[in-house]
Amino acid sequence: MAAVSTTPSPPRRPPVLGPEPWEAIGGGIWSHWDLWFCAVAVADHDGRLDRLEERPVGELQDRTGSRHGTESKLSHLDDLRVRLDDAGLAPGDLATRDVLSERGLLAKARKKLASAASKAEPRPWR
C-alpha cells in the first residue's frame, strides 16, 4: 500500500479574468486584458493594434458572434491605444520577448480575444 501524504497542497491561485492589474510600466497600471491585446498584436500582427480590429469589426458588420463581447473588446482596444500613446509606449513595451515566452500566455491571449467569435464556428485569433 502506498503512503498517503499528509502535507496540505498549496492553495490554488484564483483565475485571472482580465481586468485585474497585471503590471506597472511607463507610469501606468496595465491589466491582463491590456497584456493579452498587446501579446496578440506583437506575435500575430507585427505589433499593430489596428490589425486586431479587422476581425471584430467584420463580425459586427456581419452580425455574427456576440455583439456585446465584440463591442466591449473594440472599446477596450480603443482605450488601450489612447493609454499607450499617452504613456509613449507601443504594444511591444508590454508584450516583451520575455513576457511572450511565459508558458501558456500567448495561447490564453488568443483564446480570450477569440471569445467574441461566433460560438458556432470557433476559430483561432490570428
What does the average pLDDT come to? 83
Q: Uncertain runs with pLDDT below 50, 5 residues or more? A: 116-126
Count of runs of 4 or more consecutive helical residues: 6
The secondary structure category is: mainly alpha
Major sheet size, sense and barrel closure:
2 strands, antiparallel
Number of domains: 1
The gyration radius over C-alpha positions equals 17 Å
Strands in their spatial order, largest beta sheet = 1-2
Order of helices and strands: EEHHHHHH
Distance between the termini: 51 Å
Q: How many beta-strand segments?
A: 2
State the helicity in percent bands.
40-55%
Using the alpha-carbon principal axes, give the shape: globular
Strand residue percentage: 5-15%
Give the SSE layout.
Elements: E1 21-25, E2 28-31, H1 32-44, H2 50-62, H3 67-87, H4 91-94, H5 97-100, H6 105-114
Antiparallel strand pairs: 1-2
Helix pairs in contact: 1-6, 2-3
Protein architecture, described:
The chain is mainly alpha-helical and 126 residues long. It has one domain. It contains six helices and two strands, in the order ββαααααα. It has a two-stranded antiparallel sheet. A hairpin with a 2-residue loop joins strand 1 (21-25) and strand 2. The longest helix has 21 residues, at 67-87.
